[in-house]
Amino acid sequence: MVTVPDADGPIAPSPQLPDDPQQARSDIRLLTEGSVIQADGYCDQPYVVIAADGAWVCVVTSSDDHEGDPSQRIVSRRSVDHGLTWTDPVDVEPREGPEASWAVPLVLPSGRIYVFYTYNSTGLREVITDTGTSPRVDTLGDMAFRYSDDHGQSWSQQRYVVPMRTFDIDRRNPYGGKVLFWWSVGKPEIIGDAVYISASKVGGFRDEGLGFQRTSEGFVVRSENILTESDPAAITWTTLPDGDVGLRAPAGDVSEEHKLVGLSGGLGGSLYCTYRTEIGYVGAAYSRDGGRTWTDPDFARYASGRPIKNPRAATFVWNCGDGRYLLWHHNNSNTWFGTYRNPVWLSGGVERDGVIAWSEPELALYADDPQTSMSYPDLVQDGGRFWVTETQKSVARVHALSPDLLEGLWQHDRAAVSTEGLVYDSADPRPVALPPLQLRRGNWRIEDARAGFTFDLWITPGAPDQVLAEQRDDIGRGWLLRQSGSDRVQLTLNDGRRECSWTSDPGTLEPGRSTHLVAIVDGGPKLILFVADGILQDGGDARPYGWGRFAPDLRCVTTAEPVRTSGPLRIYDRPLRVAEAVAAYRAGS
User: Fold this and answer.
1) Three-class SS of residue 171?
2) Which residue of 130, 212, 399, 549 is 20 to 30 Å from 461, comparing CA positions?
């Protein structure tokens, strides 16, 4: 390996970040609180590896204009201050073309950094679709790669190619398999003594202006000698799974953007893979033989057995060590691309007997504008801390994650009941004046992760529309929790200017059974969440979402009236995390 002096200077600590960034005054979940990686032209898949000199090296699929532009290429940047600032870009592939796209980096124990990407070696300028042609030529050609031996400051002059075996889906594409359509979004993984790169094959395109993948399925390329072979031309590769069929979806024809991890008990042989579908749920499969065969396709599932919702958007699993995992998803079951990628949710996984049990999700990132999308993330683990990157395709950022949030995800089945922010408890006979439950201070946003409040109550169903708890004045200002019909609960918020409400999922209440319900009003993303008997409601089969948005200009909903409740009630002057709501249910009444 060539050693090059670090032109960026020594690696710096992160003095700007507190020990727990969630304790910062600002809400670190807010999109614009992140540090910008790139904000010029088009930028996608901002993926980071940590170089041997300690710097972060980020590779980005970039162009001068838009996704699929002829100038689409691969660039890299370095950061020596944990993503706060970045160097100017260095070309991995130049803008002169042909198109180079969808780069995924890998750093070896030796310090060498590889970057693998889709390279339009065919020279095609359009592709055949169902009813015509499309100018998108950035998901076809070779799996190419270059490498860096100077910590990502420059890249090899020579380009190399990973051979890919054809499947039946390739031979059924418009070119009979002579042109391969594919792309990758999952960073390569070192598992045991091998390296695995997950990717997606495309069998055909719909004719919708730019061309959308009509059929797709997953595959893996594995190298057994890349960790020890210094000559890139001598690296060997195997395309998996065995046979002619890749990883398919549980239903529908779309199975794409695969991301795999190794499981701790498999000694390199047990793998877990997640991927997006067109049916509103996260696809998932296990392999117990190093990717040669896979279980029948299924959905990723919470520990309760419910399938995890996700639109046609990237959904990634990450191995965080010690049998712990994270899953990025969007917690809604819309079935198209659209603007369904805001907010972002994380679930924590714990491996048990070779299977990952996923926690109820927590909201991790949001943008004020519901039309803003965030996707194609990466997880950065450095010095015991965690960050995520993401992109809106025009701006890429990196965000610190709260250790408390992560521990809550991984300890979801044994978290402690919190009393922080508890301002009212019906079990306490002492009179108490409820402090203001504010979402704004006049016209000003509350720039605090604690903005919002929570109602925690036990409900015995009664007559439809019965009042469960309230604090309202004679003009209706305040808040109200009431039974809606026979089996739902509605929360109404009124500040005297505007009224907002959200109703729980059908089946929340059952006759003759006591139900624990936590209504979380989160003033950051302006969401109302219901957690019923330890389960974050997701809409079930009735609707794509279990959470609802309220008006961004809603202010204070507290009045001078006393709190009235029909059963046990606790009120917090902050939005509880979902893990805290689960803990309250487990603690019982």
Assistant:
1) helix
2) 549
